[in-house]
User: What shape does this take?
Amino acid sequence: MKKDIGKIPAIFPMPVLMIGTYDENGKVDVMNAAWGQVCDNDRIILSLTESHKTVKNIKLNKAFTVALADRVHVEAADYFGIVSGNNAEDKFERTGYHAVKSDKVNAPIIEEFPIVMECELAEIIDTESIYGIVGKILNTKVDESALSENGKVDVRKLDALMFDQFQSGYYTVGEKVATAWNAGLDLAKRNR
Amino acid sequence: MKKDIGKIPAIFPMPVLMIGTYDENGKVDVMNAAWGQVCDNDRIILSLTESHKTVKNIKLNKAFTVALADRVHVEAADYFGIVSGNNAEDKFERTGYHAVKSDKVNAPIIEEFPIVMECELAEIIDTESIYGIVGKILNTKVDESALSENGKVDVRKLDALMFDQFQSGYYTVGEKVATAWNAGLDLAKRNR
Assistant: This one.
């Protein structure tokens, strides 16, 4: 029996994205964002409030990085969501984390996070229903320790966090249930 | 040490969204989509290829539902991603699943999936970098068995699947690591 619960945005899980930018003085800023998704093979879209320091920095540099936060870095990841770069000039330095400039775009890579996309600004979508930053992925960098023997990212090794917006929780990935384009094959064939 | 792996869209996890629509004859269609996200408190955006039957149906009815697939329904969820509604007129019927018309929008609710958003079409974003269907959430319905005592959705009870695009796997949610706007509070206060 289903119950009406109102206008609840019921997308689960959400990623825990760490968006890295430089400000006008070359200072590193990082923010925590959950409302981001792939929107094409080499594109991602981030829905951000325009007042964020990150948005100003992206407009300035036409570039940003997007990393995934992993379990061991949950404290800093959450901190990047609590404190605003508009109010704390030393926001990044407070964590003691380390940043290097990307060799692909004018944006910082935070060394502590295991995987990062280096993006240039493709477009800002600004309509009645959405304010979205679209990034073109130029390259992705990953810790070798997060790769499988087949050279692809292993999400169990990555140990990335996910966000539960219903109750504001961070979770880890659980067990593998099935392989896509495989689990439903019998059903597809049986009825052809 | 980080390794370059090219233009890999590295968002993890992704949701396993079941998009429900009616066609021109009132027949139910369901497709599986991973590239969807919340883009405002009552808005979601789905990046879909325009050729999908689902997109035609959404343009026709200006409405759709978005459910989350859970672990016990992984076979049908995957099947909804393998078979195209353009090629299989009985795509939905083949599963033996049950649909009822939403009381909020002209779109079907699939009874087997535990939570569903009832959406009207807000806008189609069609630019050089994105083709996105933006939905306005009018209401969300959830199985009472997925609710906590506080009346909010419990993601452990929901048992929703997530998608790993790196290696095309479906996973379940793991353990809770921390509470958001809390895990980073000490770090925020310590350095104020």
